[in-house]
# Entry
Amino acid sequence: MSNTTKSPEEAFAEGMAGTVVPDVSSKQDKTRSLAQDALRDLIRRPMFIVSGILIVAILIIASFPTLFTSVDPLACDLKHSMEGPSGSAWFGYNFQGCDVYSQTIYGTRNSIIVGVLTTIFSLIIGGLVGVLGGFFGKWTDALLSFVTNVFFGLPLLLAAIVILNNFRDEKGMRNAGVMAVVLTLSVVGWMSMARVMRGAVMQVKQADYVAAARSLGASTSRMMFRHVLPNSITPLIVVATISLGAVIGAEATLSFLGIGIRPPAISWGVMISEAQGRISQGLHPLLFPSGMLTITVLAFIMLGDAVRDAFDPKLR
Amino acid sequence: MAELSKNDEAVAAAVEAPVGRGEPILQVRNLKKHFPLTQGILFKRQVGAVKAVDGVSFDLHQGETLGIVGESGCGKSTVAKLLMNLEKATAGEVFYKGQDITKLSGRALKAVRRNIQMVFQDPYTSLNPRMTVGDIIGEPFDIHPEVAPKGDRRRKVQELLDVVGLNPEYINRYPHQFSGGQRQRIGIARGLALNPEIIICDEPVSALDVSVQAQVINLMEKLQDEYNLSYVFIAHDLSIVRHISDRVGVMYLGKMAEIGTDEQIYEHPTHPYTQALLSAVPVPDPEARAHRERIILTGDVPSPANPPSGCSFRTRCWKAQEKCSTEVPVLAIPEVFQGQDIQAAHFSACHFAEEKNVVHAG
Amino acid sequence: MTTIDKTASVPAPRDGATFDGPLLDVRDLHVEFRTREGVAKAVNGVSYSVKAGETLAVLGESGSGKSVTAQAIMGILDTPPGFVTKGEIVFRGQDMLKMSDEEHRKVRGSKIAMIFQDALSSLNPVLSVGYQLGEMFRVHQGLSKKEAKVKAIELMDRVKIPAAAARVNDYPHQFSGGMRQRIMIAMALALEPDLIIADEPTTALDVTVQAQVMDLLAELQREYNMGLILITHDLGVVADVADKIAVMYAGRIVEQAPVHELYKRPAHPYTKGLLESIPRLDQKGQELYAIKGLPPNLLKIPSGCAFNPRCPKADDVCRTDIPVLVPVTEQDGTDLPGRGSACHFWKETIHG
# Structure
């Protein structure tokens, strides 16, 4: 027996067939989880650093617009109408004579709020539907998959137009507030999250460690929250990060179509929508919000990509 | 129907224990698992069934190792899942100390689970990658808090690590920091945590390197002696099964073809399938290459969704006759050997049972 | 171009049959993997050779470098991260590492074939088996679709797939594991290679099917007088079919011997330990001997002999000097042809 109970100090590290298992010598005895490993890996990726800096900057702009501009975005003066960029107004003025720079800064908040909240709501709806369907299977899954497919069948824009058309402000005008846009986009956007979650849960559910927990007599909630969920949430987080960018773009689309956020509220979509009609008179009111929108969407998609790569076990 | 009950009786008699070992700790009777084959998406209708396990019976005694061998698809892993109640049996009973555990649920089932634990095949998927070793081995105590008081758990986990030959300081590490053999030790430690009486081992060493297999086998034997454990050891490697088992059952297409002590099965097999299986195992001895008779079976294992009539082995059997296609052979002492006090007189489900030593032939 | 006539039981002598000496000669091969964690030295000076009609078994555990060596021979090493840093792979007198890509591909396609462990993932699931077999003939010999199919059926007959003509249009998933492995063998045979490299060809199969496939492989090898390199971890399979054995550990050959000799009198503690640690079908043993510890990390191979931390015979010299593969002799100095051991204490191991 002496052989099997040998001191565990003996050569701990091991070389595997072709692949190489990271060495764990007794010196660097820090314990790291997979997530910690991924994080360590992330901070070395240039794509993550760039997107991270951009996103932090955007978040600061959204939270504290006054740090970046002292000009009231709604203090418009028609005498400046369509004036180009200058020392006093870096991005120039729009048709109404409002400061484009100030509006772009103030518009960030609404765009980010829509992006973040919509993603969180879709994450909750999609995650829940996916977990329940994937974990319980059978008729629960059949029903939830059916519902998911029905929602998938709705054309996103059409559905959004139909829903948002029913929102009116006090004056009876068609006007959807920020929250209405968030709810609408969540309702039409949770399905892919549900699919991703369902697939991941179904896969993890097969794992022997879930069977092991069951044979220990673990309750359903323990299996779900301690074993299945932590191991299946990663792809959902990745999809969510990527779709955050898409949602911000969708908000701009809705505002552009005139059914999303409406003036006097400001968002990048609202600004683009207002500027597009007067391209012949000047490009700058269109260019600056569009540029910000593109950078933001790109930053979130890059972040999502980096997160996915870091968590992909095949790449480690 | 009359024939069926006669079968059951014979089976019950057949698998009974060698004398003088007291009540068996586990009695499996006519266990069946049929997976329905369905068609249609919304309105499913059953078009057939995969008979993964189709009437398996055996006893297990305190401190004993029962090996179950067979090729892939013979249903041996499903038997493990049924014994663990991870699958619901279609029919049959599993008595643990006289209590049928296939009918249990809720609290009663949870209580029984304390006594029957499992070691899995794949050490890479059987440990939750997001839990530390301490959490993994300590989880049984979270689920059954009566086993260890809260303050005592860390010490218990460290004790278990020590028992399976791992450094107790590894308690905060994650599974991916260990090699396959070490992970299998962690899995064994988790299985031991609740002080079970029975451990079901489903191919516990087949994923490990040759030089590490021996370490884990030795560990399992040591633990068996120390804790008086009973093992059901399921594997496809006949050499390892012989090494560790007291009794061995050979499965083919969801049924037990032959069952007996390791000597009866390996030195005096009477079922043609057992003989073919044993003769096909390569022996690490080139001298034996010339002397051994090899029975090379033709064809593949038939689909368990559509097994042959009569004896399920007849399609690949060189002895098959008319009778084999009409009559299901009963697992019992074959008539020719009945009443004789020889090793060949053990339970074998063949109409034309005949002793043939293929391991030492020549 | 040789015509392929599978009906003749004795193959016609082929070009190159006059070539004397080893078919394949691997000399001092070094392969490393450059990974983020560091450089993993997977193969550290491997030399072996195979003659026509001979079976060389390369035995080793995971991480021993046995498969990497084969990948280097076939030129299918993933580069990066894998790089051949030193050595020669001489096939019929020509160093394949110095060949142009085009030449190399020609040799690889028609002279050396490889059989993998997992037949299902090696076959294209959306093409019929007959089409995939026939492709060899269409591409390399310019046969028509119809002719190629006839050849495919012949090949399937050759590897004893029942009702070949009826099953030629079936898809890989419609065959059982054993039959798929036969199809792989048929593909490898299609162009009548001189050498077949089989990487764990039966590991995924059941014992009864494993025996069928190994028998088929041995039979075809005899018939075509091919060289066979059998890569495996299974000491039993090796004993059944090999002529000579090379045992690998941490990227080196630690022992080399004709098959009977190796099992009777191992000359390296690792081989000896392996043989003692496997349970036997024909013996009910007591406690198994177990080699202590774990296979080494290729990023940090122990200094001196890589096996020293696990070796019962290890001494100071083992921790400092890398043992070279030296010829093994009888106690009185008589030559033991074909035997070699890379152990400082081989004399004690084989004779003590």
Notes: The first strand of chain C starts at residue 24 and ends at 35. DSSP finds 13 helices and twelve strands in chain C. Chain C touches chain B through 48 residues (CB under 8 Å). Chain C has two domains: 24-242, 247-351.
